[in-house]
Design brief:
This protein has about 375 residues and is α/β, with parallel strands linked by helices. It folds into three domains: about 120 residues, Rossmann fold; about 70 residues; about 170 residues, Rossmann fold. Helices cover about 55% and strands about 10% of the residues. The protein is built from 15 helices and eight strands. The chain has a four-stranded parallel beta sheet with strand order 2-1-3-4, with helices on both faces. The chain has a four-stranded parallel beta sheet with strand order 6-5-7-8, with helices on both faces. Helix 14 links the parallel strand 7 and strand 8. Helix 1 packs antiparallel against helix 6, helix 3 crosses helix 4 and helix 13 runs parallel beside helix 14. The structure holds iron/sulfur cluster. Iron/sulfur cluster binds next to helix 14.
Length: about 375
């Protein structure tokens, strides 16, 4: 059995740690690229969600590299994520891409079927080992998100432009040559120390922008044209609350153990959207409110064309903009999105935020010192 899995940002690092620790033979698909998207676009229905198209491309490319089994996740709706795993299976079968499927989702047949799938993947049901590996992988997801968040803070303040990207890229290169969760954790710790030792302008007060939207497009740098790094290199500090570790801890672990979840975003979104409609629409609205309350200068919503929950969120965001006086830019991505036009919109938005900040500073000075 040679297992593969789809890409979404840095999640391959967690998947790699998991496979290494269980001793599973695996193939990491080539990183997301125009070629991956081209393959997915060729085989998926035209109006399918962009992440599904990219995943199809991942599986076809991994199959060409010898993978015979794919791990997929799914959900129970209400958006199209609910039938992602079945669509992956059917599309790949139709194009003769013979991959055995291990769906890591809760099956209709209940616990016995779920355990059968875990056993198929891990080669046994050693509860102690499974718990230890899952704990390590969750820690890696958390450490990676912290590392990424640190890069969001350091990049706009670096004195020598490009230092953050250089350390980040070097880390990504090294992680591919590393095996097992303890080695990967050490590598993340080392890279974190390197980031902290970068020469920074600690007096610089950057504009702050929150990134919200559909999980895949906000997390995956290929899909969002490297938005976090782009903004950071323009001197903007970014933040993103929807993360892989958040998804593992809040949605999977806490749900499974019936532990109370951090639902501050849902509380903040309640006046605008009081119920979960799939995807991350409530998070988009709730985090926009929270960013406004925390004094952020703006928010960028990113989502793939036809994403139903984010279309709903986008239609409500003008009310949040008005109520909280925060600027919001929406970027919709599909396979036709050109980088130049995308960059122009981001640059125009940053100019707008700069002007707003200047006007605000002038207004505050006028109140303090009079005309
Ligand atoms: S959240 Fe949006 S992009 Fe993701 S599966 Fe649902 S509809 Fe598609």
């Amino acid at each position: 059995m040679k297992v593969t899995f789809p890409h979404m940002g840095n999640t391959y690092i967690c998947a790699k740690a998991l496979m290494d620790d269980f001793g599973i033979d695996y193939v990491i698909p080539p990183f997301n690229s125009k070629k991956t998207l081209e393959i997915g676009t060729k085989y998926a229905p035209e109006l399918a969600c962009l992440p599904l198209k990219i995943n199809i491309g991942n599986f076809v490319q991994a199959h060409r590299q010898g993978a015979d089994t794919m791990i997929i996740t799914g959900g129970c709706g209400p958006c199209r994520f609910g039938y992602y795993s079945e669509m992956n299976r059917e599309i790949l079968k139709d194009i003769g891409c013979e991959l055995d499927v291990i769906a890591l989702e809760w099956p209709d047949q209940g616990l016995p079927e779920f355990l059968r799938r875990v056993k198929k993947l891990t080669g046994g049901l050693n509860v102690v080992k499974i718990s230890r590996v899952l704990k390590d992988v969750t820690q890696i997801a958390k450490m990676m998100d912290d590392f990424e968040r640190l890069s969001f803070r350091v990049r706009p303040r670096e004195v020598h432009k490009g230092d953050t990207d250089r350390i980040y890229k070097a880390f990504l290169n090294k992680v591919l040559k590393t095996a097992g969760s303890s080695e990967i954790k050490k590598l993340i710790r080392d890279a974190t120390s390197e980031l902290l030792s970068i020469d920074m302008d600690r007096d610089f007060v950057p504009l702050k922008v929150g990134i919200v939207g559909e999980i895949y497009t906000t997390i995956d740098p290929f899909t969002n044209n490297n938005i976090a790094s782009k903004l950071g290199n323009m001197g903007i500090e970014v933040d993103r609350q929807v993360t892989v570790s958040g998804w593992i801890i809040e949605h999977i672990i806490k749900n499974a153990l019936h532990l109370p979840r951090d639902l501050r975003y849902a509380e903040a979104a309640r006046p605008y959207l009081g119920t979960m409609i799939g995807g991350h629409a409530q998070e988009t609205l709730g985090h926009t409110v929270l960013y406004a309350k925390e004094g952020y200068d703006g928010v960028i919503q990113v989502y793939p064309l036809t994403c139903m929950p984010e279309i709903v969120a986008e239609s409500i965001l003008p009310a949040v903009e008005r109520d909280y006086d925060i600027s919001v830019l929406t970027l919709i991505i599909d396979e036709m999105t050109g980088e130049a036009g995308y960059d122009t919109r981001i640059e125009a938005f940053v100019d707008l935020l700069k002007r707003r900040r200047e006007r605000k500073n002038v207004g505050e000075a006028t109140v303090l010192f009079g005309n």
